[in-house]
Amino acid sequence: MISAAEALQDFKKITPKTIPLVEPFSKGHRACQGCGEVLALRLAAKAVGMDMIAVSATGCMEIISSSYQTAWETPWIHVAFENAAAVASGVEAGRKALIRKGRIKDNGSKIVAFAGDGATADIGLQALSGALERGHDFTYICLDNEAYMNTGIQRSSSTPFGAMTTTSPPGKISKGQMTWKKNMPMIAAAHNIPYVATASPAWHVDLMNKVKKAVTIPGPAYIHIYSPCPTGWRCPPETSIETARKVVQSKVFPLFEVIDGQFILTRDIKKPIPVEEYLKTQRRFSHLGPEDIAYIQKRVDADWDRLLKLVQATNPEA
Amino acid sequence: MAGKAVLTGTHFMNGDEACCEGALAAGCRFFAGYPITPATEVAERMSRRLPQVGGVFVQMEDEIASMAAILGGSWGGAKSMTSTSGPGYSLMLENIGLGLCTETPCVVCNVQRAGPSTGLPTLVGQGDMMQARWGSHGVYEVIAVAPASPQEMFDFTIKAFNLSEEFRLPVTILADEVVGHMNERVVVPPADQIVVKDRLKPTVPKESYLPYQPGPYGVAPMANAGDGYYMHVTGLTHDERGYPGMDAATQVEMTTRLRDKIQNNLERILDYDTVMLDDAEVAVVAYGISARSARGAVLAARERGLKVGLIKLNVVWPFPEQFFRELAPKVKAMIMPEINLGQMVLELERVVGGRCPVELVAHPGGAIITPDRIIKAVQAALEEKP
Predict the structure, then answer these.
(1) In sequence order, what are the residues at sequence separation of 6 or more whose Cβ sits closer than 8 angstroms to the Cβ of residue B3?
(2) From CA B53, how far away is CA B49, in angstroms rounded?
(3) Does A174 touch chain B (CB under 8 A)?
(4) Residue in B221, B150, B180, B197 with CA at minimum distance from that of residue B25
(5) A64 and A112 in contact (C-beta within 8 Å)?
(6) CA A57 remoteness from chain centre
(7) pLDDT value of position A172
(8) Residue A82 forms contact with B (CB below 8 Å)
(9) CB–CB of A154 and B36 under 8 A?
(10) Binning pLDDT at 50, 70 and 90, where does residue A209 land?
(11) What is the pLDDT, as a whole number, of residue A318?
(12) How deeply is A171 buried, as exposed, middle or buried, from its count of CB atoms within 10 A (0-12, 13-18, 19+)?
């Protein structure tokens, strides 16, 4: 198998002028006002194109896309909560066998699994790890809205520290979510797969290019997309994109790629905004005091420094 | 702290919330769960309520882990519980089997929705009745209760805990979406009027304790891990010491124990209510939300002069075999409404053994069975020539 870097040698970047006009994920869904996740999904689908075979775990995007018949213009399989990566593995392996036997033509179909943060970091982690380890040629996209929003805002292991959810209620002792967000992109990268990336819908062209790279590269690829949820985060719907921008500018959610094990910072933050500016527009963080915010700032800075060191260590030319 | 565990008074709450309150009143202090419609409200309330009474709420990464965690919690000495719905219950079944094999008291609330698979997450079903009896592999007996109202969600959750403690096994609450989500009056009695049973504790010296030696009524006393008693817990077939015995003789001994502790104590476990059954020519047999429809149907049919009565199953597993065998020759027919295409009715038919006709009033899920349909079935049964 060729390396990711080799596969990307003739990569044609999507630019604002060449954004695909196709809409594999189309109209006719019932996402909430201002949903950042459905926007991310639509952009990702555009980047993949009409030859996508989509596998969706149970979750918001599955529910909202299939209630008025369907918003999917491509083949779509809804699976149980925990097995998007396993079903995608089967689709890939099954097609590979049929192509090898000459029963079907290799028409370049791209297998893409979509799952939320709960379906990725919690219940589906085992299936995801298995699929990445086996090396199936597919792309796994985690649309991370940082809690179980479909069932009504329960915490997941991807919920950030301090966030209020219905199962992490803040009180006299509890600060809300008491644990630090699980670092899924790093877990995916630890499987030594060819391509891992993070993306935010506030940088939509960057997001689409990362998805396009992921489906271009042979072997497994993992993309983690930050997906604002105004309903669950208790912020105004019109601030979705602004939130998706601030999370990057505050270094809370760095945008990076890991290509063949090399870390690349896709957006360096020279003049970061304080995390408080990111937190204060979302009511899920409104109970946090100055000490909590200082703690978050400290850890965010430390995580950022660690990422920079990984970039320097793996990619000295950058 | 203890004062907050029993919210004595009259409340207006839904069945899921009442289930949480029933658990706390029964002494539950550990809950491990995972969000799933229509059971999420149990977990949500637990996350707020348990810390108030010194308990622990943990949200797990899935239902497999939730069920495993409450087995651990129970061996740690805490009365433990989880809640879920069909898809999650399917995932829990392996560990429910482990709990049955290791005789671990705990409670699983399954707020049933329509299936198979993801099915209708927000709409009612009663399709997990047989799964609760046979879903885990192997040879075992189970206990399951079926509440028909928020009040019964409170009462039967206490009952489920008591049965689990008394007989050392996971007990399933087979609720359903309508019972879980409906808001009704729930009366919580004073704490001293609530009967709470605790597992038998060893009375023998620590050296001579045998974790699976049947005690007074066939159930072995259970020590807590860490209390200094010898403890060897395994899902392998094991003897009275808890040691694996990889032979048929140990399997016979163990499964006999699992069966006898239930089958020899039926009078302490079985629970059903009867309504106007004395002179009834037709008996409606129902459980859960379908028992509410059945009750309405029986009362309306009586007003029209039809001789019909109701048997409401509060404990669905074990099934009251003897009772139905004796009832069968006295009635013209039995009618069972259930929100599946025929599950408990199979058990009823087996038990009745042809001594009277058994009719199913079925709905595959997504809606409750209306009383009209039951009345029609009653009329049809009464018109049948013998």
Answers:
(1) none
(2) 7
(3) yes
(4) B197
(5) no
(6) 13
(7) 87
(8) yes
(9) no
(10) very high
(11) 66
(12) exposed
| CATH code for position A117 | 3.40.50.970
pLDDT digits (tens, 9 = 90+) for A253-306: 999 999 999 999 999 999 999 999 999 999 999 999 999 999 999 999 999 999
Is B79 in a helix, a strand, or coil? strand
Q: Are B89 and B128 in contact (CB under 8 A)?
A: yes
Give dist(CA B344, CA B129) in Å, integer: 7
Could you tell me which of B27, B374, B19, B5 has the C-alpha nearest to residue B199? B27
Chain centroid, CA B169 distance in Å: 11
Cβ atoms < 10 Å from Cβ of A281? 16
Task: Output DSSP code: residue B237.
Answer: -
**CA–CA min distance A116, chain B (Å):** 13
Cross-chain CB nearest to B35 (options A148, A157, A174) = A148
Q: List the beta strands (DSSP E) in B55-208.
A: 56-59, 79-84, 106-114, 120-124, 143-145, 170-176, 183-188
The pLDDT confidence band at residue A1, using thresholds 50, 70 and 90, is confident
Map residue B148 onto helix, strand or coil. Answer: coil
User: Residue B7's closest CA among B31, B16, B15, B20?
Assistant: B20
Please report the residues numbered 217 through 276 in chain A whose beta carbons come closer than 8 angstroms to any beta carbon of chain B: none
Range of the domain at A230: 4-314
Summary count for chain A: helices (H), strands (E) = 12, 8
What DSSP state is assigned to residue A165? B
pLDDT at A121: 98
Q: Does B62 touch chain A (CB under 8 A)?
A: yes
Edge-to-edge strands of the sheet including A195-199? Answer: A76-78, A52-56, A110-116, A139-144, A221-226, A195-199, A256-259, A262-265
Residue numbers in chain B where pLDDT is lower than 50: 1-2
State the maximum Cα–Cα separation within chain B, in Å, rounded to a whole number.
68
**Residue A67 clears pLDDT 90, i.e. is over it:** no
Number of domains observed in the structure of chain A = 1
Residues of B in contact with A123 (CB under 8 A): 34, 61-63
**pLDDT > 90 in chain A, percent:** 96
Residues A8, A259 contacting (CB under 8 angstroms): yes
Tokens of B361: 């009033």
Q: Mean pLDDT over residues A165-187, rounded?
A: 95
Total number of residues shown for chain A: 318
Polymer length of chain B? 386
Domains defined for chain B, CATH in brackets:
9-193 (3.40.50.970), 206-267 (no CATH), 273-383 (3.40.50.920)
Encoding tokens for residue B300?
């309306």
Query: How far is A190 from A36, CA to CA, in rounded Å?
Result: 28
Interatomic CA distance for residues B13 and B173, integer angstroms: 18
In sequence order, what are the beta bridge partners of B12? B185
Alpha carbon distance B375, B361 (integer Å): 10
Burial A244-267 (b: 16+ CB within 10 A, else e): bbbbbbbbbbbbbbbbbebbebbe
Beta-carbon contacts of residue B205 (< 8 Å; ≥ 6 apart): none
A interface mutation test: which of B34, B36, B90 has the most A CBs within 10 A?
B34
A272 Ramachandran zone, left/alpha/beta (phi>0; psi -120 to 50): beta
The string of DSSP letters for B327-352 reads HGGGSSEEEEEESSSSSHHHHHHHHH
Mean pLDDT for A234-259 is 98
Note whether B25 and B151 are within 8 A (CB): no
- A173 pLDDT band, cuts 50/70/90, is confident
Distances in Å between the alpha carbon of B300 and those of A81, B331, B381? Answer: 44, 19, 16
Q: Which two tokens stand for residue B323?
A: 């009772």
Output the six-digit token pair for B187. Answer: 């009366």
Each residue's pLDDT tens digit, A92-107: 999 999 999 999 999 9
